[in-house]
Design brief:
By secondary structure, this protein is an alpha/beta fold. 25% of the residues lie in helices and 24% in strands.
Length: 178
């Protein structure tokens, strides 16, 4: 069910849908960059975090932080993890992929997670081109709640559709959290 919130509080949205993801988990974060690494304070308190980042400048910056376990400089479409992760946090990155590549990628990513997949993206249409020379920042797809519910995700929407700053949080639990 689509629920609207006046506040654009993405952290609260995640905590409502996946309350334990910041508690001692091995996390793969897809979508962190030099400009945006949401939830880093919550994650670094108790999680082991690997990051996949396609843009070299961002990967180099993330590698310099010192508290990430691994930073993999590659496109998520080409990534093959050596191990499974308890949580996959695919945060504001999915909209940068072509629509036809998203469902097969999500099926692949779901096999990498033992507990939960958490996705964040704009709620609908939000035009964006390259940012600071990073072509990977271009929005190629505009997603709506039905896309995720059709794939078995629980969703929560913040803000108004097709509005800058809006958000869809989509979560799929693989098994009951301990």
């Amino acid at each position: 069910m689509l629920t609207q919130y006046d506040s654009l509080d993405r952290l609260s949205s995640i905590k409502r849908l996946a309350p334990d993801i910041f508690n001692n988990k091995k996390v793969l974060y897809i979508g962190a960059s030099r400009l945006r690494f949401q939830f880093s304070e919550q994650l670094k308190k108790s999680c082991v975090i690997d990051v996949v980042e396609a843009f070299k400048d961002n990967a180099n910056y993330l590698s310099s932080l010192g508290w990430l376990s691994n930073v993999f400089h590659c496109d998520i479409l080409d990534f093959e993890p050596a191990n499974k992760y308890e949580v996959i946090l695919f945060w504001h990155c999915i909209e940068h992929l072509q629509q036809e590549k998203i469902t097969p990628l999500l099926k692949k990513i779901e096999n990498w997670a033992t507990e939960s997949i958490v996705i964040g993206c704009p709620f609908g249409f939000y035009e964006q081109g390259p940012v600071y020379g990073n072509d990977y920042e271009t929005h190629l797809t505009h997603l709506y709640p039905e896309f995720f519910t059709d794939l078995g995700y629980t969703i929560e929407c913040l803000g108004q559709k097709d509005t800058i700053g809006s958000n869809i949080t989509a979560v799929k639990h693989k098994r009951a959290a301990l």
